[in-house]
Design goal:
elongated; about 800 residues; voltage-gated chloride channel activity; alpha/beta; about 5% strand; three-stranded mixed beta sheet
């Protein structure tokens, strides 16, 4: 061609290259009579951007949506006063939500405490002044109550006194024994029946599932209104039945249910799963705050143990919500002692440096107990899951309750509730204490149920008497029973917490060691090692402190908590001087337990149930590449993909029907598999259904387009459905040579659902969170098919 024609062609090409915006098409390119393409997100389609049950959310997408929403509100707030007021209310809504969660959770926790205390005492008798009074409240108004027999008053009648009219003798014991067992069976039976009939998700502690949900997993109904109602009722019944369980773990579940329900009244939390999980992290802190009366410990528990994503803003709001919940519970005053927990204690006796040795021994015991409990409980739960035992949950609960009640009633320390037992063990003996744990005698041989004011050599020494020896062997027997029953109880189909039973085991062991150390120091106070421990008018050793340290050690061994555990115990006791013993025991317990197994009880149950949870604490040390994990593998059919043009509605619907994948990569064409983007299955299904309903002329042969430019179309062709709006144009990609260590870190830190594997821009495969979990299980010589959910 002539040179000037080539010059004109080049000039026109340069004009198009430089001046036509990239990704936009001029209207002249479309034939005048071609049908208009439909953009499904010109108006928001209901359901787009939501997730199906048992799927993982896309954290990056959710955070991007929230940033866009904030940007839009900020721009509109500059245009009108109404928009400015809306912007202010939107910013304030988070704090209002925290206030409501704190109020609701604190009120529910107070009601649970009051009801559980009353129903626990109902197993032993009833108050004549009013059946709604528990034993302690019934005797408060009596003028005939003494300090030595403060639990006896004419207004409180045991079931034997009411039914057969006997107040002493074997008949009294037999009738009370029978009624105790009957009430325990009734409470446990009602609890398991209500859980099975109305809310199967209300069983267990809930913390493993809360951890999984906070990591981005969707479990519909787990935090619903029916779960909240049934969990609240059955938690009272289960605790009152006398089973070896606590209410502290389930209170975290209850608080998260409150948060999830209240989130539905706030648009920005209802429509954004990532924002909702920030609220749930704060609710976890609220649960521990009302369980232990420890707001700061609750915030640290959420940060250390439960939360997956915990920005600084969530820290402030968690603190505020925990504060409101603790204030609400304090206003209700469920225990009548102006405290938030039943076993609040105060110690004033200083500890000695050499006492760190028994404190470390308690830490070792706690670590051993934690490792033993996790292995034994997981073995029992796996047996329940894989055998016919799992088909009879009601029978299992009734049998365990029957054995627990039969063996617990004869022993004073197993008959009482676990919270009362911990309170008894934490308590330091005073002049007015009538407990067998305070059954000391002086060197002169006189025996008293209380502490003698004088002792040998002018020391405040307390030699063990017959009452203390009786208490010791009863505590040793109670320790064995508590350990066995806690193993078989945790995981049954009733609400069951682990904090209180673990603390009870440690408190018993600590009290036993504390009494032994006390007697050793008293009998050998003249030796160099104990010299200076016992001073005139003061106690040598505080056994209650050992019980507290033992409780912290055993709880730390089971849950692997450290910082939050120490703060919770500090808030329980109010003693700054005991932080060092608690820290020593907690760290020793964690070291010993980690040496025997890296998983806490919650992580072990997550793995047992097959939840897709990537634990941030677990290191990936294997030298594998992305090509070793991606699908398809060698010999498998190629990965199912969509093309950006050339496919019809019928072909896409057939692909959806023939596969179960959560999403599909989009490529240029089958011949040129260059990656364009990624589309979620749910968004694709909803968009096609919406197009068939609302777009005129859409038929099975209508083309599907993911392109932005409108291609030339025949006048007789059916209208096309344009789906570029639901296409993720920037999916995360790695190459086949990327180390799996890096891929795992990407999934953990960004919360990805899937990652595409490419080579020179060509799509080769896909890696999902499930693929990574299966690979990690295979590398650890575990069954990769144990990962149940998609």
């Amino acid at each position: 061609k002539p040179q000037w024609e080539l010059s004109m062609i080049n000039s026109h090409f340069l004009y198009l290259f430089y001046f036509v915006p990239v990704g936009r098409c001029t209207a002249e390119w479309r034939p005048n009579n071609s049908p208009k393409l439909m953009d499904l997100l010109d108006d928001t389609v209901p359901g787009i951007g939501t997730y199906e049950d048992f799927n993982t959310i896309d954290w990056v997408r959710e955070k991007s949506k929230d940033r866009d929403r904030h940007r839009e509100i900020a721009n509109k707030s500059k245009q009108s006063t109404v928009a400015l007021l809306f912007s202010i209310s939107d910013a304030f809504s988070g704090w209002l939500l925290m206030l409501l969660i704190g109020l609701m959770s604190g009120a529910l926790a107070g009601g649970i405490d009051i009801a559980a205390h009353w129903m626990t005492d109902l197993k032993e008798g009833v108050c004549l002044n009013g059946f709604w009074f528990n034993h302690e409240h019934c005797c408060w108004a009596s003028n005939e109550t003494t300090f030595q027999e403060r639990d006896k008053c004419p207004q409180w009648k045991s079931w034997a006194e009411l039914m057969v009219g006997v107040s002493e003798g074997p008949g009294l014991y037999v009738v009370n024994y029978f009624m105790y067992v009957c009430w325990a069976l009734l409470f446990a039976f009602l609890a398991v029946i209500l859980v099975r009939a109305f809310a199967p998700y209300a069983c267990g502690s809930g913390i493993p599932e809360i951890k999984t949900i906070l990591s981005g997993f969707i479990i519909r109904g787990y935090l619903g209104k029916w779960t909240l109602i049934i969990k609240t009722i059955t938690l009272v019944l289960a605790v009152s039945s006398g089973l070896s369980l606590g209410k502290e773990g389930p209170l975290v579940h209850v608080a998260c249910c409150c948060a999830n329900i209240l989130c539905h009244f706030f648009t920005k939390y209802r429509r954004n799963e990532a924002k909702k999980r920030e609220v749930l992290s704060a609710a976890s802190a609220v649960g521990v705050s009302v369980a232990f009366g420890a707001p700061i410990g609750g915030v640290l528990f959420s940060l250390e143990e439960v939360s997956y994503y915990f920005p600084l803003k969530t820290l402030w709001r968690s603190f505020f919500a925990a504060l409101v919940a603790a204030f609400t519970l304090r206003s209700i005053n469920p225990f009548g002692n102006s405290r938030l927990v039943l076993f609040y204690v105060e110690f004033h006796t200083p500890w000695h440096l050499l006492e760190l040795i028994p404190f470390v021994l308690l830490g070792i015991f706690g670590g051993l107990w934690g490792a033993f409990f996790i292995r034994a409980n997981i073995a029992w739960c796996r047996l329940r899951k894989n055998t016919s035992l799992g088909h009879y949950p009601v029978l299992e609960v009734v049998v365990v309750t029957l054995l627990t009640a039969l063996l617990a009633f004869p022993i004073e320390y197993t008959k009482m509730s676990s919270s009362e037992l911990i309170s008894e063990l934490f308590n330091d003996c005073g002049l007015l204490d009538s407990s067998k744990l305070c059954g000391y005698t002086s060197n002169s041989g006189s025996t008293s149920g209380s502490v003698n004011a004088t002792a040998a050599n002018g020391l405040g020494a307390r030699l063990a008497g017959p009452g203390l020896y009786t208490a010791m062997w009863q505590l040793a027997l109670a320790l064995v029973l508590k350990m066995v029953f806690t193993v078989v109880t945790f995981g049954m189909k009733v609400p069951s917490g682990l904090f209180i039973p673990s603390m009870a085991v440690g408190a018993i062991a600590g009290r036993l060691l504390g009494v032994c150390m006390e007697q050793l120091a008293i009998r050998h106070h003249e030796r160099d090692i104990f010299r200076g421990w016992c001073s005139p008018g003061a106690d040598c050793i505080t056994p209650g402190l050992y019980a507290m340290v033992g409780a912290a050690a055993c709880l730390g061994g089971v849950t692997r908590m450290t910082v939050s555990l120490v703060v919770i115990m500090f808030e329980l006791t109010g003693g700054l001087e005991y932080i060092v013993p608690l820290m020593a025991a907690a760290m020793t317990s964690k070291w010993v337990a980690d040496a025997l197994g890296r998983e806490s009880i919650y992580e072990a149950h997550i793995r047992l149930n097959g939840y897709p949870f990537l634990e941030a604490k677990e290191e990936f040390r294997h030298k594998t590449l992305a090509t070793d994990v991606m699908r398809p593998r060698r010999g498998d059919p190629p990965v199912s993909v969509l093309t950006e043009s050339g496919m019809t509605v019928e072909e896409v619907e057939r692909l959806i029907a023939d596969t179960t994948y959560s999403g599909f990569p989009v490529v240029i064409s089958q011949q040129s598999p260059r990656l364009v983007g990624f589309v979620l299955r749910r968004d694709l299904v909803i968009s096609l259904e919406n197009a068939r309903r609302h777009q005129e002329g859409v038929v099975s042969m209508s083309p599907i387009l993911f392109t932005e430019c409108d291609p030339p179309m025949s006048p007789s062709a059916p209208p096309a459905v344009k789906l570029r709006s639901i296409l993720d144009l920037s999916p995360f990609t790695v190459t086949v040579h990327t180390a799996m260590e890096i891929v795992v870190d990407i999934f953990r830190k960004l919360g990805l659902r899937q990652c595409l594997v490419i080579q020179n821009g060509r799509l080769l495969g896909i890696i999902t969170k499930k693929d990574i979990l299966k690979h990690m299980a295979q590398m650890a010589n575990r069954d990769p098919d144990s990962i149940l959910f998609n």
